[in-house]
Description:
Low-confidence stretches: 1-43
Strand order of the largest sheet: 7-6-8-9-3-10-15-14-13
Largest sheet: 9 strands, mixed
CATH superfamily of the largest domain: Thiolase/Chalcone synthase
Number of domains: 2
Distance between the termini: 37 Å
Radius of gyration: 20 Å
CATH topology of the largest domain: Peroxisomal Thiolase, Chain A, domain 1
CATH class of the largest domain: Alpha Beta
Mean pLDDT: 87
Helix content: 25-40%
Strand content: 25-35%
Structural class: alpha+beta
Order of helices and strands: EEEEHHHEHEHEHEHEEEEHEHHHEE
CATH architecture of the largest domain: 3-Layer(aba) Sandwich
Oligomer: single chain
Amino acid sequence: xxxxxxxxxxxxxxxxxxxxxxxxxxxxxxxxxxxxxxxxxxxxxxxxxxxxxxxxxxxxxxxxxxxxxxxxxxxxxxxxxxxxxxxxxxxxxxxxxxxxxxxxxxxxxxxxxxxxxxxxxxxxxxxxxxxxxxxxxxxxxxxxxxxxxxxxxxxxxxxxxxxxxxxxxxxxxxxxxxxxxxxxxxxxxxxxxxxxxxxxxxxxxxxxxxxxxxxxxxxxxxxxxxxxxxxxxxxxxxxxxxxxxxxxxxxxxxxxxxxxxxxxxxxxxxxxxxxxxxxxxxxxxxxxxxxxxxxxxxxxxxxxxxxxxxxxxxxxxxxxxxxxxxxxxxxxxxxxxxxxxxxxxxxxxxxxxxxxxxxxxxxxxxxxxxxxxxxxxxxxxxxxxxxxx
Length: 389
């Protein structure tokens, strides 16, 4: 029997913290054990707008497949079988930070990271300006910035450079978050909502940027590298949250860290950069654990799970999306936007779920029903964000 612990923080007129322990039985195998710890934070803030940006190099999935086949044909046995991941990824087009020929050459970590800094700054500036325009806000109305990324490093972080580029206040709160991978977009939204609720009169800017393609390892002939090459892409997104205005109301969040699961997903740091590490069992982990996690979240949020009608899920791949559908007994139509983003942009790690959110808000009118944003990432971890729209 495993035990699950969580605490709830909520805001009425002042912050208050309610601590509770809930003991639930899990009769399932997998990475969850007695050390699993869940943190729930309740907050109220509105998502005023979402802005998007992608790099200039748009490529068809079939073109990338042919190029990888050319690069790896002499080094990889059974390459034709491994390349099926390109056909089964549910992707038609992707956007990359560099032209395709760049990836055929060997690059140092320093070289790739310089490109990461330059392109990330360009993309995030575009995404933020679009979000500000859509929210009809001036840069001076931003009181905090949350910056999420896992595919490169910079000190000072990119958010510091954005402050100068965008004319933001030099006194705003900066919260850079690194290492959450695909879960970063959902986690960043939760943290931004908490800040927005505690900063009356100010908006909070969430920025996520990932250049996954720069982590491609030219001389890594592993299956993991090939699978990553068949899925990952580049992009940036920005969201503006505030206690004022109109938009989906963020009501709470739930973060889950699975014990002894570091090998499921992450980076290995090598001489040439960040080498992808992940397990093909991720869909199985979703199926085995997500129903119970949704039960815990619904209990913490004091809602009936049946009342959740909107599902914004990270499009990690067709099998992961299908695992969401099967484990939560969803109608495939409820994850239509996830499939669309995957098909048109690929897996952009933390950025993708914000692309899905933006498209979902365009396609659906407000119904004042509950929704949840779901994403999984390194740790192994899960992020869930409750909203009403």
